[in-house]
Amino acid sequence: MKLTKNRVIFIAFTCLFTLSLYYAYASVAATSFKYFGYGDGSPTFFHIFSIVFFILVPTLLIPVSNPRPSVYVVTIIFYVVYIPTLVILNDVGLAYNVEDFVLSLVLFVCFSINALFTRLPLFDIRKISILGIPTISIVYALAVPLSILIFYKVGWNFSFVSLLDVYSKRDAIKEMGLGSFGYFISWMANFFLPVIMARALVLGNWKVVLAVVMGYSFLYFTIGAKIYIFSLGYFVLSYGYYKTLKNGNYFIPLVFSVLLLLPLLMFGESLKELKFVYEGVISLRVFLIQGLSLAVYSDFFLGNQYTYFSHITGVNLFVDYPYSESIPMVLDTKYGLGTFNAPYYASDGFTSFGYLGMLIMAPLFSAFFYFFDLVSRKHNEKFVLLSISVFVVSLSNAALATSMISFGGVLLVIYFMFSVDKRMRIKEGCK
């Protein structure tokens, strides 16, 4: 494989991110949050070699300067899940029972499959038109009444709160018992608002952009989930990724490195509390907790019964589910870490068949996003990347089926499948 200038830039910034992550792990996870089961941040030479090798090879496999949405998905997974998991698995002081090298090797194979799928050639598929109605019109037609319904259902819980006081919001909503109505809120945040925001940003319609910002703000101050307030940052991330595609894909690792290293500037007694909150919300929740998930799932399922995919609705009609609660709740009872969600490597793969389950899920995960590449192929690249910017986040901490159904992945596929227009041009709009 030819080592181009862009590839060298990509590798260099990946190294920067890895060092930044290791700093955060050693200074945050291994100290302030060691009770989660993190080690002491002191791998052996062999573990360091494993980490370097298993990170370096994917930097040669992931396409650079390629606008396919699957590449964006794989890139996010690479930095938010894959690298943190390798660093944590190879810490000899980790408080969980893991076969570190074997687990790292299988994870490497799975991610390599994900990366190689993004290199498969694409072909044209026939689109379907719904009575000639522009798909974006259907999105608006559904979004408006859905917004009114959400406001009517949960608007009573709206009030201004800080990041530290959102738990009372969540408790109030939880006591209310939204049930299946919760899907509507999730679809609004992960599908309707992102598609509308993406179109508005491409067209420069700042009134609609403002309306979407207000929509996310309302959801945050009502539901209390931090993802809603961070959603605006996800649009910035995907936009920056798109704008720097031709220069080595350095934007994401650069931004993530800055986020991880920012606590270095927070010194002094006056910033001590702010630093601790920042490390808990950003360093731990965004990066380090995802890396711990495979270790936790491995520790539990090496000594307990696999689910054989029965945790997935539909499969459980044919295979008996062996537990009385959902897997995250079972793990909370066992380890006391809260409802411990995890990306597909753990939540779908290791949960179902251990290492074999991971190897089964890797091509299934990749096949979905290859199909997404196909249905979105003739669309404006910026619009596509912006429209999936919030949905992609769910892939870092949820099972694949959950991401598809609860977080709107299937809705995104349907949207692009039924959209028959050619690439969107700013003056023409998106139909």
Automatic annotation (TrEMBL):
Keyword Ligase listed: no
Keywords for the protein's UniProt record, in alphabetical order: Membrane, Transmembrane, Transmembrane helix
Keyword Membrane: yes
Membrane-spanning intervals of the chain: 45-64, 71-89, 101-118, 130-156, 176-196, 208-230, 250-267, 276-297, 353-372, 384-417
Organism domain of life: Bacteria
Protein name: Putative B-band O-antigen polymerase
